[in-house]
Amino acid sequence: MMDFPFPPALLLLRWVVHGTFAILLAVAMIGVAQHGQWPLMAGGALLGLLYAAGIVIEGRLPHFGGRIHLLLGRIWLGAVTLGWAALALAAPQYIWLAFPLFFAYLHLLPLVAALPGVVLLTAAAVLAIAWQEGGLTASRVIGPVIGAGVATLMALVYKALYAESEQRRLLIEDLVRTRGKLVEAEADTARLAERERLAREIHDTLAQGMSSIILLLRAARRDLAEQPEEADRRIAEAERAAQDNLEEARNFVRALAPPALQGSSLTAALRRISESAVAGTDTRVRFEVSGTPVPLPSDYDLALLRIAQGALGNVSRHSAALHARVTLTYLEDMIVLDVYDDGRGFDPRTSGYGLRAMRDRAASLGGALTVESTPGEGTAVAATLPLPAEATR
Fold first, then answer.
1. How, if at all, do strands 323-330 and 334-341 pair?
2. pLDDT per position as a tens digit, 163-174
């Protein structure tokens, strides 16, 4: 079905018009059936099918209000009008179907064409009544004219509401696009900042080391013929510089990932820090895994590891707990890290930088961090992260 760009009030008005047409058509068909006019009843059924087909086709068009939508709608309106005119001339029961058609004219045609169309449709209804009843009277003219006037006013209100609704929809789309651009700009800023940091690190370590090696080798080449011993010494210095630079590069790469995760899984890393974080205290920590572990992106591993380290650091430094428990739970669409201790507890409203940093890490991946604690009753920290699409397959 099509996603109509209308608020509920306008959708209700549309279906009221369609319902009015269906009711008037049913009344007309019953009337001709009571007089045994079965061909006219069949004609009414065909008109109803044509009207319903237009509604169904409209609901399946991808671009409401587009050129194809309006073209097909106007062809449909012409066919419905011709069918109505034929039935109205044959039976007076069908004349009052002109009332919902007024709305269709004012909706599908531009105002400069819709108003003359309504006038012609009203005149056709009056002439059909005169044809069926054998003459004109004031009531036979006033009735269709009043109906046309009321329909015109309601349609104009409808158009005004639709224009306002469309303007609001476009504004919302613009706001959504703007928000998306802001998110992209923030991501670009973060990438640029990280790129600048890496460039600074490379310049201060690897680039400087390579420059030293080049200078030493050039000096060795210069001294190779006349001072071979000096050249050998410079080559040895270049070799040592290369070794130092290689080690610097390895340290630099290792700094991009936490040592606890190097060559290790998240669960193994969490198990190790659960044991080491409270070393030298009276706290005993138990680590548990619930659910089936799935591979996670490195930023998820890093965030969960850092949150666990921060929470366990608080346990060892502040809680004076006897027991603590770290639980990593894999659910279908999320992963949950719980750190609980039975220590002295605290008032979460007075939390410091550590908990704020943990919340920021969780929020950066679309998750959340909750802290439950009461002085004297322990603390529970829970980090919930939505699993990425590649981890839920």
1. antiparallel
2. 787 788 888 888
